[in-house]
Amino acid sequence: MTSPEPTPDAKTDPPGSPAARAPGAADLVITGCTALVHDEREQIRFVEDATIVVRGGRIETITSDPADLLSAGPADAVHIDARGQVAMPGLVNCHTHTPMVTLRGIAEDLPLDEWFNDVVWPIESNLQERDIELGARLACAEMIRGGVTCFADHYFSMDTVAAVTAESGLRANLGQAFFSSQGAEGRERSLDFALRHRDTAGGRITTSLAPHAPYTVDDADLAATAGLAREHGLLVHLHAAENRDQTDASLARHGRTPVEILAGAGLLDTDLLIAHGTGIVERDLPVLARATGRIGVASAPRGYLKFAWPTTTPVRALRELGIPVGLATDGAASNNSLDVWESMALTALAQKFTEGDPRRLTSRQALHHATLQSARAVGLGERIGSLAPGRRADIVLVDLSGPHTQPVHDLAATLVHSARSGDVRTTIVDGRILMRDRELLTVDVPAVVREMNERMPALTDRAHGRRIQEYDT
Ligand SMILES: [Zn+2]
Questions:
Q1: Residue 330 above 90 pLDDT?
Q2: What CATH number should be reported for the domain whose range is 91-377?
Q3: Residue 21: band (very low, low, confident or very high) from pLDDT cuts 50, 70, 90
Q4: Of 167, 182, 262, 382, which one has the greatest count of Cβ atoms within 10 A?
Q5: Distance 95 CA to ligand 1 centre (A)
Q6: d(CA 302, ligand 1 centre) in Å
Protein backbone atom coordinates (compact mmCIF):
# COMPACT_ATOMS: atom_id res chain seq x y z
CA MET A 1 0.00 0.00 0.00
CA THR A 2 1.28 3.45 -0.83
CA SER A 3 1.48 5.95 1.97
CA PRO A 4 -1.71 8.03 2.17
CA GLU A 5 -0.12 11.34 1.31
CA PRO A 6 -2.80 14.00 1.07
CA THR A 7 -3.16 15.89 -2.19
CA PRO A 8 -2.96 19.59 -1.41
CA ASP A 9 -6.13 21.37 -2.43
CA ALA A 10 -6.47 24.95 -1.30
CA LYS A 11 -10.13 25.03 -2.31
CA THR A 12 -11.14 22.59 0.38
CA ASP A 13 -8.63 21.86 3.14
CA PRO A 14 -5.31 23.68 3.27
CA PRO A 15 -2.34 21.31 3.14
CA GLY A 16 -1.17 20.36 6.58
CA SER A 17 -4.49 21.18 8.21
CA PRO A 18 -5.88 18.40 10.39
CA ALA A 19 -8.62 17.76 7.83
CA ALA A 20 -6.01 17.09 5.14
CA ARG A 21 -4.61 14.14 7.06
CA ALA A 22 -6.32 10.78 7.07
CA PRO A 23 -4.22 8.47 9.20
CA GLY A 24 -4.84 4.83 8.42
CA ALA A 25 -7.05 5.56 5.44
CA ALA A 26 -6.58 2.97 2.76
CA ASP A 27 -6.16 4.12 -0.78
CA LEU A 28 -9.11 2.77 -2.60
CA VAL A 29 -10.35 2.15 -6.13
CA ILE A 30 -14.05 1.53 -6.73
CA THR A 31 -14.88 0.23 -10.20
CA GLY A 32 -17.97 -0.53 -12.25
CA CYS A 33 -20.43 1.55 -10.23
CA THR A 34 -23.04 4.07 -11.31
CA ALA A 35 -21.92 7.28 -9.61
CA LEU A 36 -24.29 10.03 -8.43
CA VAL A 37 -22.64 13.36 -9.22
CA HIS A 38 -23.69 17.02 -9.48
CA ASP A 39 -23.15 19.08 -12.62
CA GLU A 40 -22.06 22.73 -12.57
CA ARG A 41 -25.67 23.79 -11.90
CA GLU A 42 -25.85 21.24 -9.08
CA GLN A 43 -28.29 19.07 -11.02
CA ILE A 44 -28.06 15.38 -10.13
CA ARG A 45 -26.41 13.26 -12.83
CA PHE A 46 -25.49 9.59 -12.97
CA VAL A 47 -22.19 8.44 -14.46
CA GLU A 48 -22.37 4.85 -15.73
CA ASP A 49 -19.54 2.36 -15.29
CA ALA A 50 -17.61 4.83 -13.17
CA THR A 51 -14.28 4.37 -11.47
CA ILE A 52 -13.58 6.32 -8.29
CA VAL A 53 -10.01 6.66 -7.12
CA VAL A 54 -9.40 7.67 -3.49
CA ARG A 55 -6.04 8.79 -2.23
CA GLY A 56 -5.26 10.13 1.22
CA GLY A 57 -8.93 10.02 2.22
CA ARG A 58 -9.90 12.28 -0.64
CA ILE A 59 -11.56 11.61 -3.99
CA GLU A 60 -8.82 12.03 -6.57
CA THR A 61 -10.57 10.95 -9.76
CA ILE A 62 -14.09 10.00 -10.78
CA THR A 63 -14.47 8.97 -14.39
CA SER A 64 -16.05 6.58 -16.87
CA ASP A 65 -13.17 7.03 -19.30
CA PRO A 66 -10.36 4.50 -18.80
CA ALA A 67 -7.95 6.92 -20.47
CA ASP A 68 -8.22 9.13 -17.36
CA LEU A 69 -6.89 6.33 -15.20
CA LEU A 70 -3.49 5.58 -16.70
CA SER A 71 -1.67 7.00 -13.73
CA ALA A 72 -4.50 7.56 -11.29
CA GLY A 73 -4.92 4.33 -9.36
CA PRO A 74 -2.28 3.17 -6.92
CA ALA A 75 -1.36 -0.37 -7.98
CA ASP A 76 -1.78 -1.79 -4.49
CA ALA A 77 -4.93 0.05 -3.47
CA VAL A 78 -7.92 -1.75 -1.96
CA HIS A 79 -10.24 -2.59 -4.84
CA ILE A 80 -14.02 -2.73 -4.63
CA ASP A 81 -15.82 -4.20 -7.63
CA ALA A 82 -19.13 -2.31 -7.43
CA ARG A 83 -20.84 -3.53 -10.56
CA GLY A 84 -24.61 -3.27 -10.13
CA GLN A 85 -24.25 -0.74 -7.30
CA VAL A 86 -24.77 3.00 -7.08
CA ALA A 87 -22.03 5.10 -5.47
CA MET A 88 -23.39 8.21 -3.81
CA PRO A 89 -22.24 10.72 -1.21
CA GLY A 90 -22.75 9.35 2.29
CA LEU A 91 -25.90 10.59 3.99
CA VAL A 92 -25.66 13.30 6.66
CA ASN A 93 -27.84 13.20 9.76
CA CYS A 94 -28.09 16.95 10.33
CA HIS A 95 -29.64 16.80 13.80
CA THR A 96 -29.61 13.97 16.28
CA HIS A 97 -28.91 13.06 19.89
CA THR A 98 -27.02 9.79 19.52
CA PRO A 99 -27.13 8.58 23.16
CA MET A 100 -30.95 8.76 23.05
CA VAL A 101 -31.03 5.44 21.20
CA THR A 102 -31.09 4.00 24.73
CA LEU A 103 -34.64 5.47 25.00
CA ARG A 104 -35.87 4.13 21.66
CA GLY A 105 -39.56 3.26 22.07
CA ILE A 106 -39.85 4.24 25.75
CA ALA A 107 -42.23 7.22 25.34
CA GLU A 108 -44.74 6.33 22.69
CA ASP A 109 -47.92 7.99 21.44
CA LEU A 110 -47.59 11.07 23.66
CA PRO A 111 -47.80 14.82 23.04
CA LEU A 112 -44.46 16.63 23.34
CA ASP A 113 -44.99 18.09 26.83
CA GLU A 114 -45.83 14.69 28.36
CA TRP A 115 -43.05 13.07 26.30
CA PHE A 116 -40.50 15.46 27.86
CA ASN A 117 -41.86 15.98 31.37
CA ASP A 118 -43.18 12.51 32.24
CA VAL A 119 -40.64 10.26 30.54
CA VAL A 120 -37.60 11.64 28.73
CA TRP A 121 -36.36 14.32 31.13
CA PRO A 122 -36.86 12.18 34.27
CA ILE A 123 -34.95 9.30 32.66
CA GLU A 124 -32.19 11.57 31.37
CA SER A 125 -31.49 12.59 34.97
CA ASN A 126 -30.29 8.97 35.48
CA LEU A 127 -27.86 8.92 32.55
CA GLN A 128 -24.32 7.84 33.41
CA GLU A 129 -21.24 8.22 31.23
CA ARG A 130 -21.37 4.53 30.39
CA ASP A 131 -24.97 4.87 29.12
CA ILE A 132 -23.89 7.76 26.91
CA GLU A 133 -20.97 5.74 25.58
CA LEU A 134 -23.02 2.63 24.81
CA GLY A 135 -25.82 4.67 23.26
CA ALA A 136 -23.46 6.64 21.06
CA ARG A 137 -21.75 3.43 19.97
CA LEU A 138 -25.03 1.74 19.04
CA ALA A 139 -26.11 4.90 17.21
CA CYS A 140 -22.88 4.96 15.20
CA ALA A 141 -23.43 1.33 14.23
CA GLU A 142 -26.99 2.04 13.16
CA MET A 143 -25.93 5.03 11.07
CA ILE A 144 -23.02 3.22 9.38
CA ARG A 145 -25.42 0.38 8.49
CA GLY A 146 -27.85 2.91 7.04
CA GLY A 147 -25.34 4.73 4.85
CA VAL A 148 -24.85 7.75 7.12
CA THR A 149 -21.27 9.00 7.05
CA CYS A 150 -21.68 12.22 9.05
CA PHE A 151 -23.96 13.42 11.84
CA ALA A 152 -24.58 16.59 13.83
CA ASP A 153 -25.01 15.68 17.48
CA HIS A 154 -26.38 17.89 20.23
CA TYR A 155 -26.30 16.38 23.69
CA PHE A 156 -24.59 16.14 27.05
CA SER A 157 -21.30 14.39 27.98
CA MET A 158 -20.01 15.11 24.51
CA ASP A 159 -16.40 14.23 25.42
CA THR A 160 -17.64 10.66 25.53
CA VAL A 161 -19.54 11.01 22.25
CA ALA A 162 -16.41 12.47 20.64
CA ALA A 163 -14.32 9.49 21.76
CA VAL A 164 -16.90 7.05 20.38
CA THR A 165 -17.12 9.01 17.11
CA ALA A 166 -13.36 8.90 16.70
CA GLU A 167 -13.30 5.16 17.30
CA SER A 168 -16.27 4.48 14.96
CA GLY A 169 -14.62 6.19 11.98
CA LEU A 170 -17.64 8.43 11.34
CA ARG A 171 -17.50 12.16 10.65
CA ALA A 172 -19.47 14.44 12.97
CA ASN A 173 -20.19 17.96 14.09
CA LEU A 174 -20.59 17.79 17.87
CA GLY A 175 -22.03 20.31 20.30
CA GLN A 176 -22.29 20.21 24.10
CA ALA A 177 -25.89 21.22 24.85
CA PHE A 178 -26.77 23.72 27.59
CA PHE A 179 -29.73 25.37 29.30
CA SER A 180 -29.76 28.78 31.00
CA SER A 181 -30.78 26.95 34.18
CA GLN A 182 -27.13 25.81 34.36
CA GLY A 183 -25.99 29.42 34.69
CA ALA A 184 -22.95 30.72 32.80
CA GLU A 185 -21.21 27.41 33.39
CA GLY A 186 -23.33 25.60 30.79
CA ARG A 187 -22.34 28.03 28.06
CA GLU A 188 -18.70 27.98 29.13
CA ARG A 189 -18.61 24.19 29.02
CA SER A 190 -20.14 24.24 25.55
CA LEU A 191 -17.39 26.61 24.36
CA ASP A 192 -14.66 24.64 26.10
CA PHE A 193 -15.85 21.44 24.41
CA ALA A 194 -16.07 23.12 21.00
CA LEU A 195 -12.54 24.51 21.22
CA ARG A 196 -10.93 21.33 22.55
CA HIS A 197 -12.47 19.01 19.97
CA ARG A 198 -12.64 21.08 16.79
CA ASP A 199 -10.79 19.45 13.90
CA THR A 200 -9.82 16.37 15.91
CA ALA A 201 -9.97 12.71 14.76
CA GLY A 202 -7.94 13.60 11.69
CA GLY A 203 -10.33 16.45 10.89
CA ARG A 204 -13.43 14.24 11.02
CA ILE A 205 -14.77 15.98 14.14
CA THR A 206 -15.90 19.58 13.85
CA THR A 207 -17.79 21.34 16.62
CA SER A 208 -20.54 23.80 17.40
CA LEU A 209 -21.95 25.79 20.30
CA ALA A 210 -25.20 24.13 21.33
CA PRO A 211 -27.78 26.15 23.28
CA HIS A 212 -30.83 23.88 23.69
CA ALA A 213 -33.58 26.20 22.39
CA PRO A 214 -34.96 29.74 22.78
CA TYR A 215 -37.52 28.42 25.31
CA THR A 216 -34.80 27.01 27.62
CA VAL A 217 -31.99 29.50 26.94
CA ASP A 218 -32.65 33.17 27.67
CA ASP A 219 -31.95 36.13 25.41
CA ALA A 220 -28.76 37.13 27.24
CA ASP A 221 -27.31 33.63 26.90
CA LEU A 222 -28.29 33.48 23.23
CA ALA A 223 -26.63 36.84 22.58
CA ALA A 224 -23.49 35.74 24.45
CA THR A 225 -23.46 32.55 22.34
CA ALA A 226 -23.66 34.60 19.13
CA GLY A 227 -20.69 36.67 20.32
CA LEU A 228 -18.64 33.54 21.09
CA ALA A 229 -19.55 32.02 17.72
CA ARG A 230 -18.29 35.10 15.90
CA GLU A 231 -15.17 35.36 18.04
CA HIS A 232 -14.16 31.74 17.53
CA GLY A 233 -15.62 31.04 14.08
CA LEU A 234 -17.95 28.34 15.37
CA LEU A 235 -21.27 27.03 14.11
CA VAL A 236 -24.25 27.37 16.49
CA HIS A 237 -26.63 24.39 16.54
CA LEU A 238 -29.96 24.68 18.37
CA HIS A 239 -33.65 23.76 18.33
CA ALA A 240 -35.90 26.64 17.29
CA ALA A 241 -39.48 27.11 16.12
CA GLU A 242 -39.78 23.36 16.51
CA ASN A 243 -43.54 23.48 16.10
CA ARG A 244 -46.39 25.94 15.72
CA ASP A 245 -47.30 25.79 19.44
CA GLN A 246 -43.84 27.09 20.34
CA THR A 247 -44.20 29.97 17.90
CA ASP A 248 -47.67 30.83 19.27
CA ALA A 249 -46.44 30.64 22.88
CA SER A 250 -43.41 32.81 22.06
CA LEU A 251 -45.66 35.43 20.44
CA ALA A 252 -48.03 35.39 23.42
CA ARG A 253 -45.24 35.75 25.99
CA HIS A 254 -42.65 37.87 24.24
CA GLY A 255 -44.45 39.36 21.22
CA ARG A 256 -41.76 37.78 19.04
CA THR A 257 -41.44 34.51 17.16
CA PRO A 258 -38.52 32.18 17.97
CA VAL A 259 -36.84 33.27 14.72
CA GLU A 260 -37.22 36.94 15.75
CA ILE A 261 -35.64 36.05 19.10
CA LEU A 262 -32.68 34.48 17.26
CA ALA A 263 -32.38 37.61 15.13
CA GLY A 264 -32.50 39.85 18.21
CA ALA A 265 -29.70 37.82 19.80
CA GLY A 266 -27.53 38.22 16.70
CA LEU A 267 -27.62 34.51 15.95
CA LEU A 268 -28.78 35.01 12.35
CA ASP A 269 -25.49 36.77 11.71
CA THR A 270 -23.53 33.67 12.71
CA ASP A 271 -23.34 30.27 11.02
CA LEU A 272 -26.45 28.65 12.43
CA LEU A 273 -28.04 25.21 12.24
CA ILE A 274 -31.72 25.31 13.24
CA ALA A 275 -33.34 22.01 14.12
CA HIS A 276 -36.88 21.54 12.79
CA GLY A 277 -38.33 25.00 12.08
CA THR A 278 -41.82 23.60 11.47
CA GLY A 279 -43.05 26.66 13.41
CA ILE A 280 -41.39 29.12 11.00
CA VAL A 281 -44.19 31.45 9.91
CA GLU A 282 -44.69 34.00 7.13
CA ARG A 283 -43.40 36.95 9.19
CA ASP A 284 -40.12 35.06 9.80
CA LEU A 285 -39.24 34.91 6.11
CA PRO A 286 -38.06 38.54 5.69
CA VAL A 287 -36.14 38.18 8.96
CA LEU A 288 -34.35 35.11 7.59
CA ALA A 289 -33.80 36.89 4.27
CA ARG A 290 -31.81 39.59 6.10
CA ALA A 291 -29.54 37.05 7.82
CA THR A 292 -25.86 37.58 7.09
CA GLY A 293 -24.72 34.25 8.56
CA ARG A 294 -24.87 30.90 6.80
CA ILE A 295 -28.18 29.52 8.01
CA GLY A 296 -29.19 25.88 7.59
CA VAL A 297 -32.29 24.02 8.76
CA ALA A 298 -32.48 20.32 9.67
CA SER A 299 -35.76 18.53 8.95
CA ALA A 300 -36.75 15.28 10.68
CA PRO A 301 -40.28 14.64 9.40
CA ARG A 302 -40.97 11.28 11.06
CA GLY A 303 -41.13 12.92 14.49
CA TYR A 304 -43.44 15.68 13.24
CA LEU A 305 -45.88 13.11 11.92
CA LYS A 306 -45.63 11.08 15.11
CA PHE A 307 -46.25 14.09 17.38
CA ALA A 308 -49.14 15.06 15.08
CA TRP A 309 -47.71 18.52 14.51
CA PRO A 310 -49.87 20.47 12.07
CA THR A 311 -47.00 21.60 9.84
CA THR A 312 -43.64 20.40 8.60
CA THR A 313 -40.44 22.30 7.77
CA PRO A 314 -41.37 24.93 5.13
CA VAL A 315 -38.88 23.61 2.59
CA ARG A 316 -40.10 25.60 -0.43
CA ALA A 317 -40.06 28.94 1.38
CA LEU A 318 -36.60 28.26 2.82
CA ARG A 319 -35.25 27.20 -0.57
CA GLU A 320 -36.57 30.43 -2.10
CA LEU A 321 -34.38 32.25 0.44
CA GLY A 322 -31.41 30.07 -0.53
CA ILE A 323 -31.37 28.36 2.88
CA PRO A 324 -30.23 24.72 2.70
CA VAL A 325 -32.54 22.18 4.30
CA GLY A 326 -30.67 19.09 5.46
CA LEU A 327 -32.12 15.72 6.39
CA ALA A 328 -32.20 14.53 9.98
CA THR A 329 -33.73 12.01 12.33
CA ASP A 330 -33.60 13.81 15.68
CA GLY A 331 -33.05 11.38 18.58
CA ALA A 332 -34.32 7.81 18.45
CA ALA A 333 -36.56 8.47 21.47
CA SER A 334 -38.88 10.48 19.21
CA ASN A 335 -37.97 9.19 15.75
CA ASN A 336 -37.42 5.56 16.76
CA SER A 337 -34.58 5.20 14.27
CA LEU A 338 -31.57 7.06 12.91
CA ASP A 339 -32.58 6.15 9.38
CA VAL A 340 -31.77 9.18 7.22
CA TRP A 341 -32.78 7.26 4.11
CA GLU A 342 -36.30 7.17 5.49
CA SER A 343 -36.07 10.90 6.28
CA MET A 344 -35.26 11.49 2.62
CA ALA A 345 -38.38 9.67 1.44
CA LEU A 346 -40.56 11.22 4.15
CA THR A 347 -39.30 14.72 3.35
CA ALA A 348 -40.36 14.25 -0.26
CA LEU A 349 -43.75 12.84 0.78
CA ALA A 350 -44.42 15.45 3.49
CA GLN A 351 -43.70 18.26 1.03
CA LYS A 352 -46.03 16.81 -1.61
CA PHE A 353 -48.74 16.39 1.02
CA THR A 354 -48.47 19.83 2.62
CA GLU A 355 -48.05 21.66 -0.70
CA GLY A 356 -50.92 19.68 -2.19
CA ASP A 357 -48.80 19.30 -5.29
CA PRO A 358 -47.24 16.06 -6.56
CA ARG A 359 -44.68 18.09 -8.53
CA ARG A 360 -43.13 19.45 -5.34
CA LEU A 361 -39.94 17.91 -4.09
CA THR A 362 -39.02 15.64 -6.94
CA SER A 363 -36.68 12.73 -6.32
CA ARG A 364 -33.78 14.75 -7.71
CA GLN A 365 -34.59 17.59 -5.34
CA ALA A 366 -34.74 15.11 -2.46
CA LEU A 367 -31.28 13.82 -3.44
CA HIS A 368 -30.01 17.41 -3.53
CA HIS A 369 -31.28 17.87 0.05
CA ALA A 370 -29.62 14.57 1.01
CA THR A 371 -26.25 15.55 -0.44
CA LEU A 372 -25.08 19.15 -0.92
CA GLN A 373 -27.76 20.81 1.20
CA SER A 374 -27.17 18.49 4.15
CA ALA A 375 -23.41 19.04 3.92
CA ARG A 376 -23.93 22.82 3.88
CA ALA A 377 -26.40 22.73 6.78
CA VAL A 378 -23.74 21.20 9.06
CA GLY A 379 -21.04 23.60 7.87
CA LEU A 380 -19.18 21.08 5.69
CA GLY A 381 -20.33 22.24 2.26
CA GLU A 382 -16.74 22.57 1.05
CA ARG A 383 -15.60 19.14 2.21
CA ILE A 384 -18.39 16.64 1.63
CA GLY A 385 -21.83 16.32 -0.02
CA SER A 386 -20.76 15.41 -3.54
CA LEU A 387 -18.57 12.90 -5.32
CA ALA A 388 -16.01 15.14 -6.96
CA PRO A 389 -12.23 15.42 -7.07
CA GLY A 390 -10.94 17.16 -3.95
CA ARG A 391 -13.88 16.21 -1.73
CA ARG A 392 -13.37 13.92 1.25
CA ALA A 393 -14.11 10.31 0.29
CA ASP A 394 -17.38 9.79 2.19
CA ILE A 395 -19.08 7.30 -0.12
CA VAL A 396 -21.82 4.69 0.18
CA LEU A 397 -22.45 1.85 -2.25
CA VAL A 398 -26.08 0.90 -2.72
CA ASP A 399 -27.20 -2.45 -4.09
CA LEU A 400 -30.23 -2.13 -6.35
CA SER A 401 -30.54 -5.81 -7.27
CA GLY A 402 -33.38 -6.49 -4.81
CA PRO A 403 -36.92 -7.25 -6.00
CA HIS A 404 -38.19 -4.02 -4.42
CA THR A 405 -35.83 -1.90 -6.55
CA GLN A 406 -36.14 -3.60 -9.95
CA PRO A 407 -36.67 -2.71 -12.72
CA VAL A 408 -35.09 0.75 -12.72
CA HIS A 409 -36.84 3.26 -14.99
CA ASP A 410 -35.79 6.40 -13.15
CA LEU A 411 -32.73 5.93 -10.96
CA ALA A 412 -33.41 9.00 -8.80
CA ALA A 413 -36.93 7.74 -8.03
CA THR A 414 -35.61 4.25 -7.33
CA LEU A 415 -33.13 5.66 -4.82
CA VAL A 416 -35.61 7.91 -3.01
CA HIS A 417 -38.83 5.92 -3.10
CA SER A 418 -37.89 2.25 -3.59
CA ALA A 419 -34.46 1.72 -2.05
CA ARG A 420 -34.05 1.45 1.72
CA SER A 421 -31.22 2.02 4.12
CA GLY A 422 -30.73 -1.76 4.24
CA ASP A 423 -29.70 -1.68 0.58
CA VAL A 424 -26.48 0.13 1.51
CA ARG A 425 -23.76 -2.52 1.23
CA THR A 426 -20.63 -0.52 1.88
CA THR A 427 -19.98 2.67 3.88
CA ILE A 428 -16.75 4.61 3.50
CA VAL A 429 -15.62 7.70 5.44
CA ASP A 430 -12.44 9.59 4.61
CA GLY A 431 -11.47 6.66 2.39
CA ARG A 432 -11.74 4.15 5.25
CA ILE A 433 -14.23 1.30 4.90
CA LEU A 434 -16.50 1.18 7.98
CA MET A 435 -18.89 -1.44 6.58
CA ARG A 436 -18.15 -3.82 3.74
CA ASP A 437 -20.84 -6.07 2.25
CA ARG A 438 -23.05 -5.30 5.31
CA GLU A 439 -20.35 -6.29 7.81
CA LEU A 440 -19.58 -3.60 10.39
CA LEU A 441 -15.84 -3.21 10.86
CA THR A 442 -15.60 -0.71 13.74
CA VAL A 443 -18.44 -1.50 16.20
CA ASP A 444 -19.25 -4.71 18.10
CA VAL A 445 -23.04 -4.46 18.26
CA PRO A 446 -23.82 -7.63 20.31
CA ALA A 447 -21.43 -6.54 23.08
CA VAL A 448 -23.00 -3.06 23.20
CA VAL A 449 -26.56 -4.39 23.30
CA ARG A 450 -25.77 -6.95 26.01
CA GLU A 451 -24.37 -4.35 28.38
CA MET A 452 -27.01 -1.76 27.52
CA ASN A 453 -29.81 -4.15 28.44
CA GLU A 454 -28.14 -4.98 31.78
CA ARG A 455 -28.12 -1.27 32.60
CA MET A 456 -31.71 -0.59 31.53
CA PRO A 457 -33.52 -1.03 34.92
CA ALA A 458 -31.34 1.63 36.59
CA LEU A 459 -31.57 3.94 33.60
CA THR A 460 -35.34 3.86 33.21
CA ASP A 461 -36.25 4.23 36.90
CA ARG A 462 -38.50 7.27 37.37
CA ALA A 463 -39.46 6.72 41.04
CA HIS A 464 -37.07 9.52 42.14
CA GLY A 465 -39.34 12.23 40.64
CA ARG A 466 -36.43 14.33 39.29
CA ARG A 467 -36.16 15.72 35.79
CA ILE A 468 -33.37 17.67 34.07
CA GLN A 469 -35.71 20.44 32.85
CA GLU A 470 -39.37 21.42 32.69
CA TYR A 471 -41.01 21.67 29.28
CA ASP A 472 -43.31 24.65 28.96
CA THR A 473 -42.97 25.52 25.24
ZN1 LIG B 1 -33.53 17.47 18.81
A1: yes
A2: 3.20.20.140
A3: very low
A4: 262
A5: 6
A6: 12
